[in-house]
Amino acid sequence: MKLTKISPILRHMNAPNVVTTLGLVFGIFAAFFLTQRDLRMAIICLFFAGVMDLVDGYVATKLRQQTDFGKHLDTLVDFFACVIMPIWMVFDLLDNSPIVIAALVFYCICGLWRLANYNLVGAGKVFTGLPVPGAMCIVTMVIWCVVMYGVFTWVAAIMFFIVGGLMVSGIQLPKYGLWQVLFGIAGVAFLILVIFS
User: Fold this and answer.
1) Burial 155-171 (b: 16+ CB within 10 A, else e)
2) Does residue 1 have a pLDDT over 60?
3) DSSP labels for 104-138?
4) What distance in Å separates the CA atoms of residue 140 and residue 121, rounded to the nearest whole number?
5) CA 12 to CA 73: how far, in whole Å?
6) Secondary structure of the chain: what % helix, strand, coil (to 5)?
7) Residue 172 is inside which H or E element, if any?
8) What would the DSSP string read from start to end of 7-24?
9) CA–CA gap between residue 170 and residue 31 (Å, rounded)
10) Residue 85 forms beta bridges with which residues?
11) What DSSP character marks residue 152?
């Protein structure tokens, strides 16, 4: 018996969608570690969720398995891992003053609108606005600095405002460019810092 007879939704089962779903699994583990107050493991899991976000697009392109379902699935996972999880980190670990809450609400709205717009217009050869995985990378670094090195919480709030604005800005970033290499290097360096701190 074909699995699609049991569940028609399984017709969408392909390599890039499995990779995207693994990103969700890493996001769920990040949430679990946050409930255990283990910021280090939560950040490590989010790092791998971000890696899955890069890999799924590459796999979809190479295998020519780009679908509308995959695009929407990717967006939903990105919203959870790259938008909701950093907000959860702040609520769980930092001082939730009115300015911080305002910054988180702004960041969430910008992330949601950026992802919804991306589903409508796509990327082509350039991203318009900072992609949400890049935004997550920046704000997660800031959260780590506040928790581990005593950086003022209001600095984190300002960064959430700035990064939120960048997500919905008109800046043009090439889909495959130097900025991604630099983000990758910064992400790996940050991961090493988190592991060995």
Assistant:
1) ebbebbbbbbebbbeee
2) no
3) HHHHHHHHHHHHHHHHHH--TTEEES--HHHHHHH
4) 27
5) 10
6) 80, 5, 15
7) strand 172-174
8) -GGGGG--HHHHHHHHHH
9) 32
10) none
11) -
Averaged pLDDT, 116-134: 85
Count of Cβ atoms closer than 10 Å to residue 181 Cβ: 10
**Domains of the chain as residue ranges with CATH:** 3-196 (1.20.120.1760)
Q: How far apart are CA 116 and CA 95, in angstroms?
A: 30
Residue 154 contacts residue 133 (beta carbons within 8 Å): no
Decide if 30 contacts 45 (C-beta within 8 A): yes
Q: Give me the count of residues in the chain.
A: 197
Of all residues in the chain, the percent with pLDDT exceeding 70 is: 97
Map tokens 């983000």 to a residue: 183
Indicate the pTM of the whole model: 0.91
pLDDT at residue 177 in the model? 78
Condensed to tens digits (0 to 9), the pLDDT of residues 22-57 reads: 999 999 999 999 999 999 999 999 999 999 988 888
Tokens of 105: 């609400």
Residue 195, both tokens = 């592991």
